[in-house]
Amino acid sequence: MNILVTGGAGYIGSHTTVALIESGYNVIIADNLSNSSISTKKNLETITNQELTFYNIDVADNNALENVFSNHHIEGVIHFAGYKSVSESVEKPLYYYNNNLISTLTLLNVCEKFSVNKFVFSSSATVYGDNKPPLTEKMLLSPTKNPYGETKVMCERMLSDIAKSKEHFSVAILRYFNPVGAHESGLIGEAPNGIPNNLMPFVSQVAKGKHKKLNIFGDDYQTLDGTGVRDYIHVVDLAIGHVAALDNLTNGVHYYNLGTGRGTSVLELVKAFERANDVEVPYDLMDRRPGDIAECYADVSKAEKELGWTAKRDIIEMCRDAWRFEKKHHI
Ligand code: NAD
Ligand code: UFG
Fold first, then answer.
1. Which CATH architecture is the domain 2-180+233-258 placed in?
2. Which residues line ligand 2 (CB under 6 A)?
3. CA-CA distances (angstroms) from residue 15 to 12, 19, 40, 125, 271?
């Protein structure tokens, strides 16, 4: 089956490309490299031992996208392409609404024109806003307080409306928790531009000596040790979750949390990283970061029951693989 993977050169898209190929799917990637590098194509070819079909196009470019659908008999789409920084979206809302909404609308129009009815969408735990964990798919979405989160809510609603209006449209909306780690080869992973916002890449860069210390944002939350708790999921488990969603796609709209169901505090993650890799991660305890919540973790029973999928890799493996990639790839 031919699957179009938009954003396939990015962090989650590249790992999902590997998982799809390993499961027998044929992948066509469309990515404008706005947050990735063409070297990922080569690395994917090394990992999968095959040539990849890659289009350097903007998914919001209708003609370029129609050309891809004319060249290949696309049977399903996994849509990763989009911008993903919460803080950047607050500074540049229009930039986020333009890219994340127009790319999705253009893609959906082209899917309709070419009668492609299988769609998997990258959403985020951020849509749950202030709901209290464990977070379940049935919860009402609350305002997300940032334009990035709003784009995810809006795309979810568009997809749900389309599924209601078209009998044969199948869509899986996957709400990711905190993806970390990298492929075991160390060839692909998360390579953020500039100073990382997210915890794991920052921890890796401190271990490497790129920054003196990690700033831990808040030690006075109502959590086991006062630091923020998140549901970290190995990116390879997340990638396999996409294959499970595609394999089990049926008509209508389906929402799934992809996480481990376990919360890990910032301090626990730092200690796990030190233990897994025999390195030191010095840190300072700082004030809370604006906009952060105390705890976020998934109820993963729906994905387990309906997709037969669970995350297998533990926090030590996540830390080990993140460090292997960091050592290989960053200055
Ligand atoms: P990423 O930035 O590494 O990958 C996104 C890819 O899409 C990049 O390669 C980029 O070049 C490409 N892209 C962006 N806009 C495009 C466009 N208009 N046309 C073509 N290509 C375009 O991000 P990621 O971490 O792999 O995230 C993938 C998806 O998952 C995003 O939609 C993101 O919002 C969502 N998500 C990510 C996280 C996370 O923590 N990483 C959490 C929840 C949801
Ligand atoms: N943290 C630090 N120091 C840092 C970075 C983070 O202490 O330098 C803490 C945060 O305060 C938080 C935890 O580490 O308690 C995790 O923070 P991240 O920035 O790694 O992740 P978030 O949970 O804030 O957000 C991430 C993505 C969002 C996505 C969300 C849920 O960045 O896009 O997970 O999927 F919506």
1. 3-Layer(aba) Sandwich (3.40)
2. 84, 86, 124-126, 176-178, 197-199, 202, 214-217, 228, 230, 266, 289, 292
3. 5, 6, 10, 20, 26
> Which residue, 221, 233, 238, is CA-closest to 295?
221
- pTM for the model stands at 0.98
- The string of pLDDT tens digits covering residues 219-266 is 999 999 999 999 999 999 999 999 999 999 999 999 999 999 999 999
Provide the β-strand partners of residue 215: 284
| 100 Cα–ligand 1 center, Å | 9
Residue 128: DSSP 8-state: G
Reported as a single tens digit per residue, the pLDDT across 290-328 is 888 999 999 999 999 999 999 999 999 999 999 999 999
Domain map (residue ranges) of the chain: 2-180+233-258
Q: Which of 38, 122, 128 to mutate to test the pocket of ligand 1 (most atoms within 8 A of CB)?
A: 122
Mutate to test the pocket of ligand 2, among 127, 198, 296 (most ligand atoms within 8 A of CB): 198
34 Cβ below 6 A of ligand 1 = yes
